[in-house]
Design a protein that fits this description.
Elements: H1 16-19, H2 22-32, H3 34-43, E1 48-49, E2 55-56, E3 65-67, H4 72-81, H5 83-87, E4 90-96, H6 102-112, E5 121-128, H7 131-141, H8 149-153, E6 154-160, H9 166-180, E7 193-199, H10 202-223, E8 225-232, H11 236-248, H12 267-276, E9 280-285, H13 292-295, E10 305-309
Parallel strand pairs: 4-5, 4-7, 5-6, 7-8
Antiparallel strand pairs: 1-2, 3-9, 8-10, 9-10
Length: about 325
């Protein structure tokens, strides 16, 4: 890890959340209805006290997400097959490319506001390539018995991990569940994450792993996810900016050409193709014409893509 790159080679920007605070993304997710959809799927009800005097509620007047190209019968069948998710005491959440962990903890705290009872906790795993950022995250958020009850119910673990590596990614997830395993039931589904998020990380996986590396990374993320996966991909124009910044710093450049990275030309649709091929469907919003694009983009012009699993894998219950 080259300090001189200042985050422009791997995306491990220091002080990232000082210019992209977690609330920027959370506000969009709340306003467009995707966060409500996630809570409803994980906790089984809609009316959530957000802690600021307001409530997030799904009703006839609320923008309601739908699964693209899936009938209502299929949706109901999927919800029934995943009914156990709403009954689990713990929610397991993974943030891939977590930086210093601010957004990881903010997402977990937002999920926890929909908890049915005081016994439920959100166990979170944040993975990032930079051990310095991971240490900062652990120092800030790994509680050591202190804090109030709400802090104790957000239980984050942060690990340094090269997400381009199949072994490192799988071992990090396996060790997380080995340490957090719930042994109260004799037979439970294979331990998977209820929610996985990938915020502005796909480009860095792509430029270092190529088309094959990005595809395998997305397939691994899907394989570790039993319910929702939320992706914020960088669009094609961002790839060009990588070398602009490295060039200004007189650092070695990266080959980001479309000849090498063929998926780059239509990257958002290519990501959707891979994820939907893993048994997920894109969650769309029933909005007025022209409104959806604005609601699902961040202020820095990135889309937020939510996918929901529609196929229950037999191996999850072996």
């Amino acid at each position: 890890m080259e300090v001189d790159d200042k985050g422009h080679r791997h995306g491990n920007f220091p002080n990232y959340y000082s210019f992209h605070p977690p609330q920027n993304r959370l506000l969009i997710l709340e306003q467009c209805g995707l966060m409500t959809h996630i809570r409803r799927g994980l906790f089984g009800f809609d009316d959530v006290d957000l802690g600021d005097g307001t409530k997030s509620t799904s009703s006839r007047n609320t923008k309601r997400p739908r699964l693209e190209n899936v009938t209502s019968t299929a949706i109901e069948a999927t919800c029934d097959s995943n009914a156990a998710d709403c009954e689990d005491d713990n929610i397991y959440y993974c943030d891939l490319g977590c930086n210093e962990g601010d957004l990881t903890v903010a997402m977990a705290s937002s999920l926890l506001k929909a908890a049915h009872n005081n016994e439920q906790v959100v166990r979170s795993l944040g993975l990032d390539i930079d051990p310095i950022l991971i240490q900062r995250a652990s120092d800030k958020f790994s509680h050591k018995g202190g804090g109030d009850d709400s802090e104790k119910k957000v239980m984050p673990v942060f690990k340094a991990c090269n997400l381009c590596s199949d072994d490192e990614h799988n071992n990090a997830c396996s060790s997380f569940f080995a340490n957090a395993r719930n042994t109260q039931h004799d037979a439970i589904p294979k331990e998977l994450f209820s929610l996985t998020t990938i915020f502005s990380t796909t480009m860095w996986i792509h430029v270092h792993g190529g088309d094959d590396g990005l595809t395998k990374f997305l397939e691994r993320a899907c394989g570790w996810t039993k319910k929702y996966i939320l992706i914020e991909p960088q669009h094609s124009s961002n790839y060009r900016k990588v070398n602009v910044r490295l060039r200004k710093m007189k650092r070695p450049e990266i080959d980001v050409t479309i000849e090498r990275l063929k998926m780059r030309a239509d990257i958002e649709n290519e990501i959707e193709r891979v994820v939907t091929g893993c048994g997920f469907r894109r969650v769309k919003l029933d909005l007025d014409a022209g409104e959806q694009g604005d609601d699902l983009r961040t202020s820095w012009n990135r889309t937020l893509q939510l996918y929901e699993r529609t196929e229950t894998r037999v191996e999850d219950y072996e």
